[in-house]
Amino acid sequence: MKFSNILYAFIAFCGLGLLASCEVNNEFYDQLDKHDGFQFVIDTSYTLTSDDYDSMGKESGQPGKYNNFSEDIVATEFLPAFLNDKYPTLDVPSTIKVTYDYYRGGIDYLNDYLDYLEVLAAIDSYTLTTADYDSMGTAAGEPGKYNNFDATVKASDYLPDFLLAKYPAAADGDELAVTYKFYNGSTTSMVTEFWTFDGSVWAKSNKVAPSIPDDVELYELTSDDYDAMGTGSSQPGQYNNFSSSIVPENYLSIFLGVKFPYASNGDKFALLYKYYAGGGVTETRAKEYTLTDGIWLEYQSTIAKTDQYVRSTAGWVFDPSVLYTMGEEDYQMIVDYVKNNIEGDYINTYGTGESYFGVDAHYKEFAIADGKFEATKFDTWQDAVKAGVAVYLPLKFPSAVAQVDGVDVNYIITFAGYVSSMVDYTITFKCTKSGPSPEFEYVEGPTLK
To answer: What is the DSSP string of 307-326?
Structure first.
């Protein structure tokens, strides 16, 4: 068998989804190097191993230190050289999708909130009662009128005198966390402030409770919640906490599904729970969960990321391009767009085709023959396709981003064009404004694939 046939057979075999198991040994590369004029081009994927991270350095600031990349240890600074060493004989324009671990950090607001709880636990606290508000006056414009404070009935106008009377034996330097009701004009919420005594006057300190993101609901587990997960030996309800032997990850996702059965996809909860750390110490800990496709998933500080690298004449280059092949539902998006946004009788009787851009969702194609698109609007079928894809992209990719790590993002769309037979083409647009409501700019195409 000729060497070219060996090469093409190897590529065809690996192209059947078996490339991950194809070990390109040194002997094969040696043979390849002897046959000038042949190109070895592949499109594959690779997942980094712990040995791979180590090979890029194990010192501080290098991937092998923690076996991941991060905001400080940038993948694009290490992977081109790594790929060049691992795949020295691959030719332009080979592509490799590299999957690696990326440390994105913890959740700052949860850490801040846990610190805040520690502060609360270290000082005395007091929550105002109905009798307390009444003691400050029950007339109009006084706290006891509605048993709360508001924008005009300010806590700062009343609490200094109230606290002097409440704590007559207070000493210089005493701190107190005071919780009261506050009406903002539509709802009443509980507000906690820190107050400090200087020996003669109570004054509000600069300590503040950390804010919780608007899209997150904070929930602290109750005794009933632990009991609902089981009260037997080695179950949360036995001591109303978790531990190293009663792992919270085994319970919290299921708990959320039962506790909040009508939650919507994308809802987020920050759960506060008790954890027995040993030595008689029980801590308050927290986890954030997001409802994703019907499953409550815990936030992970380290996630898997996949980046695409392309072999260029200058070496391996990071390429965040999005490569997408249109299917039936994609073509239907364009048909529906024409139906809803363009005047005229362009939609076929089945509702699956239109003659403005020339799209047919049933056959999954752009009909590019003369007469299949609106000739008064488009001079050529290429113009019709460009316009059709331009309206499709924001609908398909509403969260598109303009850049990744400072590199422009191109959307390379493969579509079928039909005259007398089906032929695949590609057309490229660049995202110029990130979503929501992304914007795209035409780059090139249609080009035969």
So the answer is: EEEEEETTEEEE--PEEEE-
